[in-house]
Task: structure prediction
Amino acid sequence: MYKRVFIIFVALMSTLGLTAHASSWDLVRESKMPEQVGYNTGSVRHDAVLGTWKGTLNNQASAIDIYFTITDTDGKLSATMTIPEQGVKGFPIDTVTFDGFNLSLKVNAIQMSYQGMLVMNSFTGKLTQYGMEFPMALTRGEIPIAKRPQEPVKPYPYREEQVIFKNEKAGIRLAGALTLPQGNGPFPAVVLVSGSGYQDRNEELMGHKPFLVIADALTRAGIAVLRYDDRGVGESEGSTQGNTTQDLSYDAQAALQYLKSRPEISRAGIAGHSEGGAIAFIVAAREPECDFVISLAGPGISGDKVLSSQQRAIYSTSGVPTPQVEQIVAANRVLFDIILASEENNAALRTKIEAMMPGQEAAVDQLLDTWMYHFIKYDPTSDIKGVKVPILALNGTKDIQVICDLNLDAIAAANPRAKIVKFDGLNHLFQHCTTGLPTEYGNIEETIAPEVIDEIVGFITTFAAAK
Result:
């Protein structure tokens, strides 16, 4: 799904091709921040290496800029890594060494290192990740400040409350922000549910804050909006480990129940992005208090098919030759079928997968991650069929993570009453784009296309008025 994307080049890009849930960015984002390890020769002056350095990593379809910022505190070097295109900001480097000529940087969580030699005012060297080597020079640079013209600026023309509600089933408290239009109400309302991975209440990624932009637009239009920090993120309790889509659906259900308890709220539903779309269907199928569902690039087919179609689209769009793409998809299909045939995620299954992927421990771990295992086996069809309230399902024709026609057609087949809207030229984040590749997300100034927001507002207000 949408946040599970490439940061640089990951093990799964070369072995499994899985970008839907676990990637090197996930390993960065979800791992514990490492201790800084410096190096001081006692006689080496660090002046030549201090500051921000820019490197560009080229692949077949795009170039990714990586920034390393190196500082010296009492003779001890430390560094951080920033990748604007992927929303990586100031992530600590584990090990930094510099002997006056040779620079070494290491990030253990993603098995990445950089080795370079100072030549004049730049470093000539290579970046290594998961055993793959890429030439990369470092030159002096400045981290760019992303332009995000749609992000609202305070003071807002509406009320915003910081709220806490409880998921009784999981025994955790979740924190979020409730925006309310001016006046006493009652107002129609919606809960925003993020996609795979763990984000804050703004669904921040790639330098964008989609839920902040959506909440602002909807509240200005007279719709109350609740957005919350995912469990284990920000001010919300819980863990980011060992959860399934079903587990996370109870967080969204608790958010909806909280909304319905508020005296200012009339009708309330759920709008979910990517995996959040699946969560919206799950909740609506079992929760009688859910009044409507909005799927924003949510899946309509089983997880294994989402991943297979995603892999084919991303590799093809990246310029990988068709025979190689089909070889990768076929190899993954074998792994998916083994998982689909399994009754549980146990040692016996791991042994089978390891036999198919010798020496690829990290990739095996990602494939058998609790979330991934359950996602591959989950088919949303029965939940979509079980929804009795109005459905709005949206997607962009350049979405190459949750393929537009494939998934929207499946939603329509499962629930013929659903309103289906396809937006020409929009990607998985509903941005106007060129290729649809995840590497574009951070470079696009637009956070979400205005026509998508208009469609959401129209659907909710029309539904509320009809009631």
